[in-house]
Amino acid sequence: MSKAPFILLVNPWIADFAAHDLWASPLGLLSLAALLREGGCGVAFLDCLDRRDPLTNSHPDVLAGADRGYGTGKYPRMRIPKPDAYAGFPRHYHRYGIHPDSFRKQLLACPVPDLVWVTSMMTYWYPGVVETIGAIREVFPDVPVWLGGIYARLCPMHAMEKSGADETITLETGALPEKIEVTTGFTVRNKTSWGSFPSWPLPAMDLVGEPGYAPVLTGRGCPFHCPYCASGILQPKVEKRDAASIYREIATRRNEQGIEDFAFYDDALLLDADRSLKPVLERLCKEGLRVRFHTPNALHVRALTPEWCRLLFESGFTTLRLGLETTRSDRQREWGGKVDTDSFASAVVNLLTAGFAPEQVGVYLLCGLPGQTPEDVAGAIRVVKEVGVEPHLAEYAPAPGTPMWREAAANAGFDIEGEPLYHNNTFFACRRPGFSLQDLRDLKDLALRARRAVRAGAATASFPTPASGAGNDME
Prior knowledge:
Rossmann fold; disordered C terminus
């Protein structure tokens, strides 16, 4: 057997018009680190999105990062030239994360690795990935670089051509030990664990310098197959952890690391949760372990019974997001049949009755999908406001391989198949005569004013509907 390899894991920069750390931890990379360590490999982790890097935040060319509530915050950022694909688009473009000098300094401080493994998130963030890999190449020109993550999985050919990585990793997790052995000659000791999510060790949060929160994943996969969502492509198998391991993770983070804020990353947190999450929350209540839970991924409203809502409130849930998507019944059926407006209204009543304040409950509404009109979205915003909670727009970002992708590609005025930058929801490549970029901006403003009205207790205030196509595509 070859000697144990030393593997450097890197969370890359983001390049975008806007980015904010809303509990955006690289959970996949930290889970990979834990599996590698358990398997006998040496591991190091560098985070290009470290909000608290001292060299970065003191640099005169950087707008420093900042902490916000419950562990969230602003990334440090530097303005950079826009890619040609965004020429003429009236927004500034930034690199979010640590200064390049700091990244280079951290790379030089590392022992020469046997392998560098870079993750990726949004497909349209790939310029940050390319720049990250370029910096790694300058310091370690002879070390193989692998690229995994969402961009690699959804746009593998583009990633192979543009990223600069030696290999684009699209394998399922269970196949990775063999790939590692072929590359390094080392046989990991925990091969059987890799293919079974419930058997994974806890993510290697100790590699994060000062975590303000901890991500928690109680299960992988989603039983629904929504036409706009790539979840089923990225994780086709539905798996749940047992209650004991979930409790151990939360209690360990709270008692040993002092972490009080936890963000659930599940796509379907409350579905089939009676034997996984529910015993955990009941035990936390019984033992009086005080924590705060946040659900940046939407909860399914049909699961929000009075009993569940009371348990969520008593166990420390603080930030709730619900998935309503639309208030049109035909669209609700077309987009997966997960929810109807009556069930949503009942869920809100249950949450408020349990003790949640209106400003704790945010509702995701889809915006800009093929076939959708501005009036559809505006009507949904008003329904959510009138129910007494806060509407949040989930602007459509076309995802390759989803059922809606073909329709989006056929109707977009930009080459979304050849250029992932056009997947960016801020750019809104699927704008059209009946749903312009100005319509999108008007709807975002409408949702903002509705949230302010809810917070001010003015849930009955009236708001105008944006006129379809009234605005220009560009300012």
